[in-house]
Amino acid sequence: MRIVALTPGNWTRATVGKFCDVQLGKMLQNEPFSEKDEFKPYLRAINIGKKGLDLSYEFSMWIRPKETERFRLIKGDILVSEGGDAGRTAIFDADGEYYFQNAINRVRPDHRGKIEPDYIYYWFTFLKAAGYVEMMCNVATIPHFTAEKVKAAPLAFPPLETQRRIVRFLDEKTARIDGLIEKKRELLDRLAEKRQALITRAVTKGLNPDAPMKPSGIDWLGDIPAHWEVKPLKNISPRISVGIVVTPAAYYADEGVLAIRGLNLRPMGFDFSDSVKISDKGHELHLKSELHEGDLVAVRTGEPGTTSVISADLEGTNCVDLVIIRKSPNASSRFLGWFLNSDVSKVQYAIGSEGALQLHFNVETSQELTVAFPPREEQRQIAEYIDRRLKNENERAERVAESVELLHEYRTALITAAVTGQIEELL
Predict the structure, then answer these.
(1) Which residue from 334, 247, 331 is spatially nearest to 285, judged by alpha carbons?
(2) Quick one: which of 398, 340, 51 has its CA closest to 191?
């Protein structure tokens, strides 16, 4: 196999199944079959986190006495995700009694004198990074890295002491890299908070720090510039409606009119990496949700209120299950868009969703949404200020995100080099 051919010629080369016991987890059992069954904690694929074993998600199911030995985890077991993010791997290193569901393959080295369990963990990390798992799971539906595929996966390993050197080396190096990644992710979080605070302050306090203020009469809005008004959105936009809701998929077509969905929206932007079209006939049947330059579209559920402005190049498109806020001659669409993406609007989405299972931003909520409303020219100035400031802030965040990606690439390259015998000092 080409993957194991990368390794030194004196290394043992085989398949995983020859040196490891591979076991698919137990099918979920919600009810006891007998009074001897016990209710035990178990792990699902979500417990295999990007940073390793994640026990913050707690699950329990019934285990039959004859199944305890077969499905109980012991320290050193390698957990490999069967579906979802197929091939994601973690080492089971927890205290306590845990079992595992059939979304996980357990890989347990059964030649204790020949294979270091942590080496197997790094080997599977390499297989996923090298594209082997994706190749083996290359199907149109959800990929599955089945127990049979895991057993058949290639395996190459050096003598035990060399494995231990490789593991010690990678433990040290990846810990340092992961620490740097974590610090950069924390920086990204702080930058996001800074951007959000900038938006909220600009759309509620204006740009003049010396402007006289007055109480808005609303606790969560606080004081606003004295010359501003407080208006419900229904008194600003001439019409607030919703895009195609009933069986939108019935109108999807290879050719036709772009249909913007919630997953395409970003705060004051779009991502069309996953896009759909509706047929011309479907568009004609739903001309009420045809979009025009200056209209605003907002997500209803999931990331409620996430809002974007329709630009000239999106004139004439349609939308699916989005709130449509028609442009107003008395309002800057970009100012309204930034206001709807601000923290004071998010408070209103939460209030409007009280008692619901998840936050939502529907037509009724949007109609009653309270807006701090400056004069038209001031709206334009505020929107331009936010656009300008966020351009610089976003560029900084992009540089940090790129450095995180480079660290991930370096981490992957280091693991690949170590487990394929490319680092001479470890041999």
Answers:
(1) 247
(2) 398
